[in-house]
Amino acid sequence: MGTSGGERGRLHIPRSSSPFQGMSAFPSTPTLDDTYGALLIGTFLGLMLYGASLHQLVRYVRLFRSDVPSIRLLVTSVMVLETIHVVFTMHVCYYYLVRSYLKPQVLLEAIWTLQLFPALMALTACVSKAFLARRAFLTGPRSKWAVIVVVVLLVAELALAILLSAKGFILKNLMEFAKSTVSILTACEATSAAADALLAGTIIATLWNQDYHKRQPSMSWAKLMTTYMIKSGLPTAILNLIALVLAQTHRKAFIYAAINIVTMRVYANMLFAVLNSRKLMANGRMEVFANSESVSLNAIAQANRVAQAEMWNAPYRPQTSPATIKVNVTAEREQDGLDHTGSMRTYDKKSMSLEV
Fold first, then answer.
1. Nearest to residue 202, comparing CAs of 144, 149, 136?
2. How many C-alpha atoms does 297 have within 13 Å on its Cβ side?
3. What pLDDT shows up at residue 105?
4. More confident residue, 23 or 159
């Protein structure tokens, strides 16, 4: 039977080959909106935030070409991991929504990029949080114990994420994976949220003790709160808490994974926002000029600590120098009798100034 001219070139899909055909065989399967639809939206938002990270990376390279090696290594590691994660999210969306469009049974099978999601996201988050932990460490001696707890939480988060990825390779079915990894996923999300909350609380407490809000009288409350949030990393703590709640209420959906994708991009943007707002020299270095004869070792050590804090843009508690008592000795001139040559003996006492 021939076909009319208007029907030529059209794509005819058999009814039995519909991509949603056969989904009724999986009555407990969540809808595409809650799974790959949420993942697709998270990928879109992540791409926009990734573009903002690239823009800030260019600005960082232009402003701080001679930054310290540790910060440059940290920036490089974060951007490399961010780029890999962006590629992974795009590959997952393309594989399930385009390449497997006519294969609905594939939607329940985990691909290797999806299986590596937990480990890659945890590694990216830990590298970004290392910057926040260093800043919290530089805020003062009181923050050291909090940083130690954060390091323990980061190690636990990374170990749990690696365990999740290993489970993904063993249990290739996504429904089985969701049922058997509830406790591991909950612990992983909880440790991540706890680490971010502890870091944010430490930095916010330091800023408050410094009376930062009082030293900015012309700054509006909206801008002041934004500054507090960016400097402390509070947005990532809030996002991780939301992901933790969604992982409990929507266990078979990927909504929490979409939130995690956005959180990864926020980590990088906050890192660059803090680095690019530093008040350093144009070459990214800080020099402390001091006269070694007139400056005490305590002052030099404090200046170095301040330089390190400003290098990492960390708020620090200024230490007040101890009270100084100056004792001035006036010059005296005395004459006492005759020496063996017959001249008067003269004693000069040189003046001096002592600090005690």
1. 136
2. 0
3. 84
4. 159
Is the pLDDT reported for residue 237 higher than 70? yes
Q: Give the 3-state secondary structure of the chain.
A: CCCCHHHCCCCCCCHHHCCCCCHHHCCCCCCCHHHHHHHHHHHHHHHHHHHHHHHHHHHHHHHCCCCCHHHHHHHHHHHHHHHHHHHHHHHHHHHHHHHCCCCHHHHHECCHHHHCHHHHHHHHHHHHHHHHHHHHHCCCHHHHHHHHHHHHHHHHHHHHHHHHHHHHHHCCEHHHHHHHCHHHHHHHHHHHHHHHHHHHHHHHHHHHHCCCCCCCCCCCHHHHHHHHHHHHCHHHHHHHHHHHHHHHHCCCCCHHHHHHHHHHHHHHHHHHHHHHCCCCCCCCCCCCCCCCCCCCHHHHHHHHHHHHHHHCCCCCCCCCCCCCCEEEECCEEEEEEECCCCCEEEEEECCEEEEC
What is residue 300's predicted lDDT score, i.e. its pLDDT?
Answer: 38
> Which residue bears the tokens 């407990």?
28
Is residue 74 within 8 A of residue 127, CB to CB? The reply is yes
Tell me the pLDDT tens digit for each residue of 179-219.
Answer: 889 999 999 999 999 999 998 888 888 777 765 555 566 66
**C-beta of residue 98 within 8 angstroms of C-beta of residue 155:** no
Question: To which residue do tokens 């998270």 refer?
Answer: 42
Beta bridge pairs of residue 335: 346
Note the pLDDT tens digit of each residue in 92-108.
999 999 998 888 888 88
Residue 80's pLDDT band (cuts 50, 70, 90): very high
